[in-house]
Structure formats: structure tokens, C-alpha cells
User: What shape does this take?
Amino acid sequence: MIDAVSQARRWYWQRMSAMVLALCVIAHLAVMVYAVRGGLTGQEILARTRGEWGVALFYGVFVVATAVHVPLGLARIGEEWGGLSQEHSRWLTWAVGLLLLVLGLRAVYAVVWA
Amino acid sequence: MKRVNDLRARSHASWWAFLAHRLSGLALAAFLPLHFWALGQAIQGEAALDGFLRVVDHPMFKFAEWGLVVLLALHLGCGVRVLLIEFLPWSGLRKAGVAAAAGLSACAGLAFALALVG
Assistant: This one.
């Protein structure tokens, strides 16, 4: 039996994270188009990001929103196309969310403070 | 008896928007952990990040990068369309939304391609 409250909650967080991501992605696309002109080196990337709190804040928010949005989308695909039960898709959601959160925040730390 | 969907919905632009949104999301979900891992290389210093960037400095990777930008813009466009459908009191076929999503993706792809090779 489908848990309606759980489904509604997933829908809500998927849409809320999508709204945050829409803004983040527009900014990220613009930054990428600007940054890749003339090639891209590690030095160029890090020169722009090292010690920049604004970068850390923006990409930190981006990572958290992604860690919410991606697992919920994958869980939905798992249920609709993969035949996953709600219990299994819940596990998938948590596992993928945790993976993206850890890797993503590690990446933010790496380019800003390491 | 299990009900199986027929293919009638696939003659509608909205179905293709749904499919593009879902498949682009899947591809981006597969790419993202690699993207985070690559950037995380900077923990070991600039040389480690540069080492990775040197490996992907190849036409095939550049094409894949361009593809990812197109997929990201496509997912964004289709996603904004879903948000507009769900939260605004618009009605009707809304085919313009599908066209706008495709157009946004094409623009982003062109802009990135120009920046990459220009």
C-alpha cells in the first residue's frame, strides 16, 4: 500500500530543491561558458575559488540541493521503471543522497580551502 | 490483469518533454559523482587537479562535456516547465513550454560550443 504522506513529502522536497537548483544551474551554466574560454586549467579554477567564501556558500547550497533532488528523482525512476518497492527506493534515496552530500561537500572544501 | 500503456501518448510533445527530462536526469545523476570526485582531487593540490584536466583534454571528452551542458540545460528547461505547470494557473496544451525547453538547451549548447572552440 502506497504511503500517501510519504509520497507527498517526496513531491514537495523534489519541487523545493528544483526551485533552488534552477537558480544555481543558471548561474553555473553562465560561469562555465565564461570560464572555458581559452581552455581551462586547475590553476585558473583554483585562482578563482581559493579562499572565496561566496564560492563556498553558493556551491555548498548547490550540493545540498543536489543531494536532495537527485535521489528523489532516481527513486521515482526506480519505482516506475525498475519495479523497486517503496522500502527499497527509500534506501536508495538515503544512500545516493549521502554519497552526493559527502563527495560534493568534499569537492567544495577542496577548491576553496584545501 | 495488469494494464499496459499503449503508445498513443507518444504522439504528444509533452510525452517527449517528459522523456527528455527523465533521460537527461539519469545521465546527469550518473555524471555527478565523477564530477565531484574530480574536483575533490584539488585536496591533493593544484597538480592533482591539473593532472585530471590534462587527461580529459581530448576532443572526445570535450564533446562529452558539451553534451553534458546540453543535457543540463535540457533538464533545467523541462524542469522549469513542470514547475510552471504545477504552480501556475495556466491551462491548455502548453506546447510553447516544450519548445522553450528545447530552445534553451540549444542556446546553452551553442554558447558553450563557441566558448570551447572560439
Notes: Chain B touches chain A at residues 22, 25-26, 28-29, 32-33, 35-37, 39-43, 45-50, 52-53, 57, 69, 72-73, 76, 79-80, 82-83, 86-87, 108, 111-112, 115-116, 118 (CB under 8 Å). The CA atoms of residues 78 and 102 of chain B lie 8 Å apart.
